[in-house]
Amino acid sequence: MSDLVKIAVDAMGGDNSPKKIVDGIIHQHNSNKNNFYIIFGNESEIKKHLKDKLDHNFFKIIHTENLVKSTDSPLEAAKRGKDTSMWLAIDSVKKKESDIVISAGNTGALLVIAKLNLKMIENIDKPALSALWPNKNGMSVVLDLGANIECSAKNLVDFSIMGSSLYKSLYPKEKPQIALLNIGSEEFKGNEIIKETYQILNKKKSDDFDFKGYIEGNELMNGDVNVIISDGFTGNVALKTAEGTANFITSELKNALTGNFIGKFSSLLNFINLNKFKKRLDPRLYNGAIFIGLDSPVVKSHGGTDFIGFSNSLSVCNRIVKGNLISKIKKNI
After folding, report:
1. pTM
2. Could you check whether 1-124+293-325 and 126-286 share the same CATH topology?
3. Mean pLDDT, consecutive 10-residue segments, the chain of 333 residues?
4. Where are the domains of the chain?
5. In terms of Cα–Cα distance, which of 82, 77, 16 is closest to 45?
6. Three-state secondary structure string covering 296-330
7. Of the candidates 93, 85, 106, 126, which has an alpha carbon nearest to the alpha carbon of residue 292?
8. Alpha-carbon distance values, 171 to 109, 226, 292 (Å)
9. Cβ-contact 140, 228 below 8 angstroms
10. CB-based contacts of 138: which residues, under 8 Å, 6+ apart?
11. CA of residue 135 relative to chain centroid, distance
12. What is the CATH number of domain 1-124+293-325?
């Protein structure tokens, strides 16, 4: 059992918890028995949903009745004390009792409590929130998605190194192709920080990634690059826009194909292709934002996802640890 990835799980964060969290753990365990789960939260509630569906050799429960609320400000969450399920889960990786921590709870609270407990990787000034996005050829890593509203050129260069390390950890057979999110593809476009970052990355010779210059918002899904760098303000706007567009397209397509007899008949004829399309845009497949730059990895599952989405974020946890993300960042920085 020593070779199992030890995942510290905040079982009390997010909608419909802890049931969703426990169901996600069981679902992931049925397909991947390479994890050991240290589950933090109300023991009686957790056991009620476990119901002997998980081998006792693959989990243990750390009981606490205190939790961070979704309505808490980051400061309020920190003041709740060191016995909340979120704090204890993060403390577990700090003490090296776990390899990685995951929570579907309050995002602001998770970032603040993580920064209070965990050290920064040497020479990195700011941690970044990153996530996986689909593109035509597979997946892209995008960062920062909201942890840092304002960034210097050094921060963006650090994000490039961290993003390429994350991509290499998740997809070890592929080489990271990096681009800066900008308002144009020409070298003279953008603000001074973006242009300064461009010059630094353009001169930087690295065996770990290729720098491809600028990328515009309408090219994010093209698949020409697989690591996209931005400040947190721009990245968060891009993320929310992409999510909203995907939901709009899926909803409108569903209405068109179920609204009348011709639509229903055509949907039956194209069932396989439509099912592929639906899966491609299913946000549960890309669930799991990664807070990187700290000396232990922290994963944030979307609070509104279901157990399938949470299960997928547990899979991301396993791949991050197996891919030696922190070691890669320290080496490349």
Report:
1. 0.85
2. yes
3. 88 93 95 94 94 89 94 89 94 96 92 93 92 88 89 95 93 93 84 93 86 91 92 87 76 67 55 58 71 93 88 93 89 80
4. 1-124+293-325, 126-286
5. 16
6. CCEEECCCCCCHHHHHHHHHHHHHHHHCCHHHHHH
7. 126
8. 30, 11, 17
9. yes
10. 171, 174, 223, 226
11. 16
12. 3.40.718.10
Query: Tokens in use for 323?
Result: 């891919």
Q: How far apart are the two ends of the chain, measured CA to CA in Å?
A: 32
What's the pLDDT tens digit per position in 240-280?
A: 887 777 777 767 767 766 666 555 555 555 655 556 655 65
Cβ partners under 8 Å of residue 277, min gap 6: 253
The C-alpha atoms of residue 224 and residue 70 are separated, in whole angstroms, by 38
Q: What share of the chain is helix, strand, coil (3-state, %, to 5)?
A: 45, 20, 35
Residue 286 DSSP label: G
Residue 211: both structure tokens together: 């720098």
Omega of the bond leading into 144 within 30 degrees of 0 (cis): yes
Arch. (CATH architecture) of 126-286: 3-Layer(aba) Sandwich (3.40)
In order of 223, 246, 280, the CA distances from 134 in angstroms are 8, 11, 8
Measure the CA–CA gap between 227 and 236, rounded to whole angstroms: 15
- The DSSP 8-state label assigned to residue 67 in this structure reads -
Q: Looking up tokens 């194909």, which residue turns up? A: 257
Cα 91 to Cα 38: distance, rounded to the nearest angstrom: 12
